Amino acid sequence: MPNPAKLRILPLGGLGEIGKNMMLIQYENDGIIIDTGIMFPENDMLGIDYIIPDFQYVIDQLEEGLTVHGIIITHGHEDHTGAIGHVLDALPVPVYATALTAGLLEIKMRSFGHTDHPLHVFKAGDVLRLGPFSVETFHVCHSIPDGVGLGINTPVGLVVHSSDFKFDHTPVDGWPPDFARLAEFAQRGVLALLADSTNADQEGWTPSERVIDRAFDEVFARAKGRIIVATFASLISRIQQVAQAAQKYDRKMAVAGHSMVEYIKVATRLGYLKLPPDLMVPVDRANKMPPHEIVIMATGTQGEPSAVLGRLAWGEHRQLEIERGDTVIMSAHPIPGNEELVHRTINKLIQRGAHVIYDPIARVHVSGHARRDELKLLINLLRPKFFIPVHGELRHLTQHSLLAQELGIPAQNIAVVENGMEILLSPDRLEVGERVPGGYVFVDGKGVGDVGPIVMRDRETLGRDGFVSVLVLIDAETGELIEPPEVISRGFVFLRDASGLIEMAQERIAEIVRRHERGSLTVAIQDALSKMFYTETKRRPMTFAFVREVSMAE
Amino acid sequence: MPNPAKLRILPLGGLGEIGKNMMLIQYENDGIIIDTGIMFPENDMLGIDYIIPDFQYVIDQLEEGLTVHGIIITHGHEDHTGAIGHVLDALPVPVYATALTAGLLEIKMRSFGHTDHPLHVFKAGDVLRLGPFSVETFHVCHSIPDGVGLGINTPVGLVVHSSDFKFDHTPVDGWPPDFARLAEFAQRGVLALLADSTNADQEGWTPSERVIDRAFDEVFARAKGRIIVATFASLISRIQQVAQAAQKYDRKMAVAGHSMVEYIKVATRLGYLKLPPDLMVPVDRANKMPPHEIVIMATGTQGEPSAVLGRLAWGEHRQLEIERGDTVIMSAHPIPGNEELVHRTINKLIQRGAHVIYDPIARVHVSGHARRDELKLLINLLRPKFFIPVHGELRHLTQHSLLAQELGIPAQNIAVVENGMEILLSPDRLEVGERVPGGYVFVDGKGVGDVGPIVMRDRETLGRDGFVSVLVLIDAETGELIEPPEVISRGFVFLRDASGLIEMAQERIAEIVRRHERGSLTVAIQDALSKMFYTETKRRPMTFAFVREVSMAE
After folding, report:
1. pLDDT profile of chain B (554 residues), mean per 10
2. CA distance A344 to A469
3. What gap in Å lies between CA A332 and CA A78, rounded to an integer?
4. Beta strands, E only, A156-293
5. Of B394, B462, B490, the CB nearest to A351
6. I need a surface site. Which of A318, A338, B277, B390 has the fewest CB within 10 A?
7. What CATH number did the domain enclosing A199 receive?
8. Sequence-distant (≥ 6) Cβ neighbours of residue A540 within 8 angstroms
9. Catalytic pick among A35, A164, A196, A465
10. Are A167 and A219 found together in one domain?
11. What is the reported pLDDT for A438?
12. Closest to A340 (Cβ–Cβ): which among B43, B358, B418?
């Protein structure tokens, strides 16, 4: 083990955000993992289903003597839970989570066959003893219930991890942040703070979830037709708020969207969501009721074409259809990268006659992450010696670091790192250590990690300019073409209108076959065709030739 | 002509925004065109270079007797000028523009060979007489100098078109909006107003360009190293502001980026930009000067990998390199859809040691479009009888319509339409008429309109899952395979690691050839391979087979 007397903090494999999806905390040969999340592909990552952290380094360390005592999942969002199946496949250690998080993890673990795997449910406030670490969990507010931050007592000192959080004084579930615990940590002395940086470039204080009530109230009071509220399936408190508004305005509530139905089932079973049974109606019954008596909860706030709202926008939902007079509330913000799709969805819904309410038209969504004033409060509550901004892109971490410096934490006591860079912590020193092999792994269909840069580059080229394949059969005796070369092409030109171009290609091949003297005929044909296609179209399709010398069947 | 006694307003071929890129104003057989702009492809429009309005309908109308008396270009942005070459190819009528706009148009017209085409330069305030229309031009403020709005006197009444605008009381060029002309229009009575809706969902008043000075001042005062300011090449006033800051803080200015150099050349020649000659230095000289004496203007605010900022972020610029201590100012907002790329660029610049300043960290950019309070002022200044929101997506037009209703314009006097839908205007009535064939046309390399939905869908499939081509040669006498089928594949799996899969495919082909009895062997092989690939990988590559019966050469 390098630097045995130091605590090692290693954020692993985020795509853009640092320390969000997975983190290793290690002291000598003992470690714990915090979170096992997935990332979603960016717009130019063609064909990728999702992305998991590259944790091979952790697995390799097991052979060097590392023991991982457990995996703690801080809350139930996909970017913290989604890779649990992949991680347990390689690292079957106990998992620790609060009840709601565990309920959601169970579904994922089951789909990977980890049915009997130890999953320990704890309550915020419980202490987890994992090897040399004693982890004091504490309640935080976020856009899913039952999230926790961690006070990790380590041999070098107390390390506090905020997890994703906001300081909501009036959360929908009535469970405010655990300020007392934070104050107590401060009294004992905090060696280092790892804190959520997502909104570190946003001034002020993120509004309470409660402000949504007012916006819902206004919309519900005015709406004459159906109301459709789209939000994240995991935003349990928002679903609760819609239920309350529905009751107040005498509407029944239906739920459309498989994932939301699942979340509601788990959250209701575990007591995080309270829906009076007479409130709920199935979608097909809602369809038969007068429009002003109905509110429909739906998935698809990110414009995903296969989710409910996307299907409604394109008129492709099996049970539901947008009608003139519907009010659609987009109770979510576009995740960066999804803006185009979200805006297109809104325009399509308007086209079909819906009145669409979204931020900034009304305050129908608030972020689940703390802004600058909250971040300042957290730092001043804890007064940590060392500061490590996490959960955000490099630009957010940088702003968070500047903010901490404004509050008096010296620059040399702050570490802004990227995923795969280790931080080494001793009672009196914070160092950035080695960069370990890390990064992220693409999951595409059944393939985990088999799609790398070469395949991605080919997809980009194919997506941009398509391909051309030709079959060239040559008479072995005469050296002449046996038949006109067959040309197959997709994504390059519209073949039915491009017969001139295809004939040119065939003539070019004939000419090359006639004149060819040495070297590979295949390469000569491919090169000549590539060149010709570029000259004629200024496009660069991938070009392949099958060339064979044969005798023709008689 | 349908409805001969009515004025016809026809917005043409925007992708998402309505009436922005091109518009036909027609009365009986006489028409004028306003703007000839391009659109930029969205993230899922793979391989498309740019998009032009589909104006075939206008061309078809020429045979029905329509005379187009001229094309008026309101300002020099690409989304209003970029398609001029394409339009003049089919519709060689005179073009009218202010000096700066004309200077920029000339370059585009030249590249399409329209060197001697009539291009009439007017000054804001001039009146253009085009057939039955007398068009009173008036100065507006926007994010490029020398923009105009239009007061179009038509046989049915005065129609005012705001063009892209903001009410900037303190513009950088000292040329405020022409309120007097608007007041005068109001006195004469405005039949209809067409107004910019881009920011119709934004409360308040767009800040003056002048607020940027303060932000620049703060950054320039503090920066110890080089300053690199990235902005739009056409944002002439921003370049002027950087020049002023540079002079104040004793820095020399260099310009990197072909398009910005071009814009600066035209704007300087025509007097819209005033750069003291001793201020400017070439990039290679700037490289040899002390960092605190230099500011570099650069293109690439949208994260375009081939623009200057993109190259700097990825360390691929020929002349420049980011150094620790550089300050980069992103003096632009991401255009929706570009957020991911912009954020990636910022993170990369930070990684290379730059301090990056962007909104919301500091107010280093403001929009060029009016917000709600300005839109209200425009409507109340003009008090039009009819209102037609334009320049924005459907969601913006809808908000703009609601805003106009708040100000007392009755809903039936407002028309929210999409591109290709005609508006018919008489002195006492506003109607939405027919939908004409319209839309947009993809430009890809040399091809204009040859890439349609089928090619695009193929590109999407190829981009997501790649393709497989196989060559199957069968002995005509024995019916057996002459050689193991050759498999070519790209974008599907990494071939070097997929030999097992390739062998399975070869075996599957052999089996089919052995058992095949009737129907097309090609189709049987393609179907079987597609199925096998999906079962094995959960991916769906396009699959093609060349099948031939031959005798082998001996």
Report:
1. 76 89 97 97 95 96 97 97 97 98 96 96 98 98 97 98 97 95 97 98 96 96 97 96 98 97 96 96 97 98 96 97 97 94 97 96 96 98 98 97 98 97 97 91 95 96 98 93 96 92 97 91 97 97 96 60
2. 36
3. 16
4. 157-161, 192-196, 227-230, 252-256
5. B394
6. B277
7. 3.60.15.10
8. A461, A464, A465, A530, A533, A534
9. A196
10. no
11. 78
12. B43
Residues of B in contact with A538 (CB under 8 A): 445-446
Q: How many domains does chain B have?
A: 3
Does A550 contact B42 at a Cβ distance shorter than 8 Å? no
pTM of the full predicted structure? 0.94
**Residue type, position B148, single letter:** V
H/E element holding A484? none
| Biggest CA-to-CA distance, chain A | 95
Q: Structural domain of residue B277, as residue ranges? A: 211-358
The span from the CA of B403 to the CA of B200, in Å, is: 8
Cβ contact B201:B266 at 8 Å: no
* pLDDT higher than threshold 80 for residue A464: yes
Q: Which residues on neighbouring strands pair with residue A410, listed in sequence order?
A: none
Q: Which of B358, B392, B414 is the last residue of a domain?
A: B358
Region of B131 please: left (phi>0), alpha (psi -120 to 50) or beta.
left
Q: Do A343 and B393 touch (CB under 8 A)?
A: yes
Residue A456 lies in a domain: no
- Shortest alpha-carbon distance between residue A135 and chain B (Å): 33
Would residue B458 count as lying in a domain? Answer: no
**Min distance A511 CA to chain B CA atoms (Å):** 22
The mean per-residue pLDDT over the stretch A492-505 comes to 93
Nearest to B490 among A399, A467, A548 (CB): A467
**Whether residue A196 lies in the annotated active site:** yes
Same domain, A67 and A160: yes
Query: Is residue A410 included in any domain, yes or no?
Result: yes
pLDDT digits (tens, 9 = 90+) for B394-433: 999 999 999 999 999 999 999 999 999 999 999 999 999 9
Which pLDDT value is given to residue A551?
A: 77
**What pairing do the DSSP bridges indicate for beta strands A467-475 and A486-490?**
antiparallel
Give me the CATH number covering residue A476.
Answer: 3.10.20.580
Q: Which residue of B has its CA nearest to A337?
A: B340
Distance, in Å, from the CA atom of B526 to the CA atom of B294, rounded to the nearest integer, reads 62
| CB-CB under 8 Å, B550 with A553 | yes
Q: State the burial class of residue A81 (Cβ atoms within 10 Å of its Cβ: 0-12, 13-18, 19+).
A: buried
Residues of B in contact with A361 (CB under 8 A): 201, 399
| Residue A81, token pair as written in the block | 């839970």
For residue A391, the Cα-to-chain-centroid distance in whole angstroms is: 13
A546, B497: Cβ pair inside 8 Å? no
Would residue A169 show up in a list of annotated catalytic residues for this protein? no
**Interface predicted TM-score of the whole assembly (ipTM), two decimals:** 0.93
CB atoms within 10 A of CB A189: 12
Burial call A326-346: b when 16+ CB within 10 Å, e when fewer:
bbbbbbbbbeebbbbbbbbbb
pLDDT tens per residue across span B308-321: 999 999 999 999 99
When pLDDT is averaged across residues A412-417 and rounded to a whole number, the result is 98
Tokens standing for residue B379 = 């409507």
Q: Which residue of B has its CA nearest to A45?
A: B464
Is the separation of the CB atoms in A415 and A432 below 8 Å? Answer: yes
Does the structure show a pLDDT above 60 at A553?
Answer: no
Measure CB to CB from residue B346 to each of A395, A466, A550 and give the nearest one.
A395
Q: Which residues of B are less than 8 Å from A445 in CB distance?
A: 537-539
Last residue of a domain, one of A333, A358, A383: A358
Whether residue A228 is found in the same domain as residue A259: yes
Partners of B297 in the β-ladder: B229, B255
Domain assignment present for residue A40? The answer is: yes
Residues B321 and B309: their CA atoms lie apart, in Å, by: 10
- CA nearest to B359 within chain A: A201
Nearest CA in chain A to B341: A337
Same domain, A353 and A377: no
